[in-house]
Amino acid sequence: MSLQVWAQEWLERRVIGESTRRNYEGFIQNHLVPRLGQKMLAGLARRDFEEFAKQLYSSGAGLAVSTINDRLVMVAAMLEVAVVEKRIRHNPARGARVSGAAPCAVDEDETPTLGEVDLIAEHIAPQYRLAVYLQSGAGQRPSEALAFSTECRRSGFVRVRWQVSAKAHRDDCRTAFVPLKHRTEGEYRDVPVAPFVEQEIDGHLSRWAPVSVAFTGLRGGRRRLEVFFSPRQRGKGVMPTASTFGYRFKEACVAAGVVDMDGKAKYTPGSLRHLLASTALANGVPIREVSRWLGHKSIKTTVDIYGHLVPEAWGRCRDVMHNAMRPAVEESGESVSAA
């Protein structure tokens, strides 16, 4: 029996709340099945789930470390039942988890080119085109881009204060927007934006007027935002989430031909943020500024992920090491040439 079939059977037998069931179904269909679903239960190994956890964390799927670990506990419970029913001898998912303590350095191959970004923007559902440029041009996370509202736009920069809740797609969700990652309610960050991003904002507004969405803040106060990405039905608080956008993003990649060797989307929505970081760093923007714009918890996170993309550091290292270890050779060569 494949993991995909077993996961469906296991879920159908669970007596759980409807909200929990939807969360489990979403994780299984969007993450577990695409990566491990075709493997047979008996062929699964611990390394499969260790690699699965690592890929989830580094893929930019929009899942917090705590959410990933919670879902890994669910997967372990799913396979524990398979052990009890003697379908497998050992539980390969038991104890698998990720730690957010050591971010992975981004591979240059995981960063889309400017041409690829434009292709994705051309092929994505029109209402999400602006989100592509808010991520690639202003470094916003998917959930932050989807929370873009009239209060975000300032002269020459955008103010990022909210992100869309993972539950914002539900009709009964009262807290459609939550504070930024690593931030408390009321905190924000300002990010400079190039004229082309402002042009994309104007283009979006020429087609769709902002929609007023009321929600309850984490402190209990009632708030209202004039948002850009809410469905067009006025008065409804249903919002697209990072998962919704992720699905549209994959569709756009495939339609644009931005795919890997297997014909699957070459990038994830989180890959778009890499473009701002890599371009800024390659052109001499201080990494501390890039860290602030990306909203990282500390500059150490930015250095761990993007520090290797600072070109002048490589050049300085080469010069310093050469001058320190081979100065005599260089001087000798100059003397010979002079002679």
* Cα-to-Cα separation, first versus last residue: 80 Å
Fraction of helical residues? 40-55%
Quaternary structure state of the chains depicted: single chain
- Return Rg in Å: 24 Å
| N-to-C SSE string, H for helix and E for strand | HHHHHHHEEEEHEEHHHHHH
Number of strands: 6
Strand content: 5-15%
Task: Tell the overall outline.
Answer: globular
How can the largest sheet be summarized?
2 strands, antiparallel
Please give the count of helices. 14
Uncertain segments of ≥5 residues (pLDDT<50)?
335-339
Overall mean confidence score, pLDDT: 86
| Class by alpha and beta content | mainly alpha
Q: How are the strands of the largest sheet arranged?
A: 1-4
Summarize the structure.
By secondary structure, this protein is mainly alpha-helical. It has helices at residues 3-13, 18-36, 46-58, 65-84, 114-123, 129-138, 142-145, 195-207, 242-256, 271-282, 287-294, 299-306, 311-325, 327-338, and strands at 157-160, 162-164, 177-179, 189-192, 211-216, 222-227. Strands 1-4 form a two-stranded antiparallel ribbon. It has a two-stranded antiparallel ribbon with strand order 2-3. The protein has a two-stranded antiparallel ribbon with strand order 5-6.
